[in-house]
Amino acid sequence: MAKKEGKPKKEVKKPAPAPAEEPKPAAPAPPKPAPAAPAPAPKPAPAPAPPKPAAAPPKEERPWLKSYVGKTPPDIKIPDGPLYAELDKAVAEFPNNVALYYEGIKITYKQLGTFVDKAANGFASIGVKKGDTVAIMLPNCPQFVISYFGALKCGATVTPINPLSVAKELRIYLQDTKAKTIVVLNFFYRLVEEVRKESDLENVIVTAGWDHLGSAKRALAPKTVYKKEMKEVPPLRKGDRNWLDFLAAAKPEAPKVTVDPARDIAVYQFTGGTTGTPKAAMLTHNNLKANCCQCSAWMDWIATRGKEIMVAALPLQHIFGQTVSMNLAIAWASGIILIPNPRDVKHLLSEIDSIKPTFFPIVATMAISVYSHPEVKKYKLTSLKLAIAGAMALPAEVTKRFEDATNAIIIEGYGLTEASPVTHANPLDKSLRKIGSIGLPFPSTYSRIVDLENSSKVLGPDEIGELSVKGPQVMLGYHNRPDETSAVLSRDGWLLTGDIAKMDKDGWTYIVDRKKDLINAAGYKVWPRDVEEILFEHPAVKEAAVIGVPDKVRGETVKAFIILQPGKTATEEDIRKFCKEKMAIYKVPTTVEFVDSLPKTMVGKVLRRELREKTQT
Q: Which are the contacts of 1, defined by CB distance < 8 A and separation ≥ 6?
């Protein structure tokens, strides 16, 4: 899965010349999610068989292959075995390498392997069986990694839950997945108590952020730094378990289970809820392994197994952080810097300065917080080789400012929960990437643009439609939601993404916007991302979000929400004048609202839906 140890290549192979005849278009294919009261969850059905793979389209139907760099293969081979086999390999090959960096402590791969085996043994001893669900409601900390792989090793399915969830949301997640066991941070134990009677929970394991920090810090933390918060933590109910006691009672011997990587669900990953009720995507061991292999194939030529260090500032409960910051890092036997609170930018910068990581999965808002920090120049960030940006649009101005601050290359990619998540990325060569494009489809990934009204109609180069993807990383479907599954996933494995895009003749893809975010202003189509790109160019603008609001004359009109740079000022007229010079008049925001913050998902994606709801109330 990962590159063999050796020196990284210094030279990049240029793309092969384009074929003489142009290929023809492919034949027809921490904020909170929005809660919604669910219907009583039906009894889970057995996992469906993976979609039957269609015959591989001929090579000429993947015009993007000629733009691949280095030794990037057109296809990947998924290694045998479950997802946790990659951890076992890292433990065997690099036992003394640091696996986890966390708040000043280091955990080696050998130690991590022992913790994971004990967790697997512990889960089995309290009755967790193959096919059961283990929920994990933790920030980025060693316990998340240990619980995740420990649950998988005893044959369970993991449900990662945002620790900032409210009771109504937690109730949905637990009821939908029938979770019988949860590992939860002590500060959120009260929330679990609130919903316990309406769930199937049998085992509650409670941990503290300082549990792996050593005896001295464990003794001091609850009495000093967290003294106020500890007053809100109720005593453990009889039968509930303390994390350290749970591990101490277990043997370092994982139970023997048989896993079918193609059919057994590793993770119920809830969608971000940016457009409505969260749904649990069923991701198999093979889905997650495939995406690791694809990421690895894309970046192997600048990565060395056992030598890299990954920053895990993205929440591991989110699929982007989970796959790239954790699973890929472990497949590479890399170190992982666990950042429990990415909003503490000073701490994040300090960790980068002192530990010297090489890879940094990131979102645009995090990049902005890094280069906008008033003390950023005090920290040495030059160890970073690459920042991988996803989950939201990466404006060109953000790319420039981040690279100026760090000297790292930042590439934009694309993915979605339903695809484990990455499907596209830009090449890692600055001279070949295309700013504003999500790049090229990954190895073993097929991509096409289909008509917005008829998804069986495939569009040609540069035509705007809905992006559809297919590959081994695509989910089995949504848990307990067959109708919603069939609405987005065809029988032969094509997934409708809900994103409006266009693809040029060479396979470079450009996201126009979310299908549901289109603004119809007096008959003109306005894509929020187009307007936001221009707003980011204004020197006083730190963040911007654009929505459509009802208008009696025009149907809809454009409204911009803006966060200003610290120490900078601007008026609504300043912003409108700036926009009039750079875009068609029908795209210019009619109103501009200056705000201190924007509603976002846990990874920083702006919740335009909440902005629309706020405007209409």
A: 79, 86, 289, 292, 293, 296, 331
CA distance 186 to 163: 11
Count of C-beta atoms within a 10 Å radius of residue 569: 9
Cα–Cα distance, 250 to 126 (Å, whole number):
10
Q: Token pair for residue 212?
A: 């792996």
Residues 375 and 506 in one domain: yes
Asked whether residue 228 falls in the same domain as residue 298, the answer is: no
Q: Crossing angle, helix 109-125 and helix 142-153, to 10 degrees?
A: 60
Kindly give, in sequence order, each residue whose CB lies less than 8 Å from that of residue 515, ignoring residues fewer than 6 positions away.
Answer: 452, 466, 498, 499, 500
pLDDT tens sequence across 77-134: 999 999 999 999 999 999 999 999 999 999 999 999 999 999 999 999 999 999 999 9
Q: 317 is in which domain, residue-wise?
A: 56-76+293-469+501-516
Please check whether residues 380 and 512 belong to one and the same domain. Answer: yes
**Kindly report the CA angle at 449 between 446 and 455, in degrees rounded to 5?**
105
Pairing of strands 359-362, 409-415: unpaired
553/452: higher pLDDT? 452
Contact 335, 383 (CB under 8 A): no
Of 189, 226, 229, the residue nearest 205 (C-alpha): 189
**Lowest mean pLDDT segment, chosen from 100-104, 318-322, 520-524:** 520-524
Do the strands 555-564 and 265-270 form a parallel or antiparallel pair, or are they unpaired? Answer: unpaired
Residues 331 and 317 in one domain: yes
* Residue at which a domain ends, from 477, 492, 516: 516
Which residues is 105 bridged to in the sheet? 102
Taking the C-alpha atoms of residue 170 and residue 41, their distance in angstroms, rounded to an integer, is 14
175 lies in the same domain as 68: no
**Which of the pair, 115 or 274, is modelled with greater confidence?**
115
Distance, in Å, from the CA atom of 184 to the CA atom of 544, rounded to the nearest integer, reads 35
CA distance linking residue 301 with residue 9, whole number of Å? 6
What pLDDT sits at residue 33? 40
Distance CA(541)–CA(237), nearest Å, equals 50
Q: Please report, for the domain that includes residue 356, its CATH number.
A: 3.40.50.12780
Helix (H) or strand (E) holding 414: strand 409-415
Q: For residue 154, count CB atoms less than 10 angstroms from its CB and return exposed for 0-12, middle for 13-18, buried for 19 or more.
A: buried
Peptide bond into 421 cis (omega under 30): yes
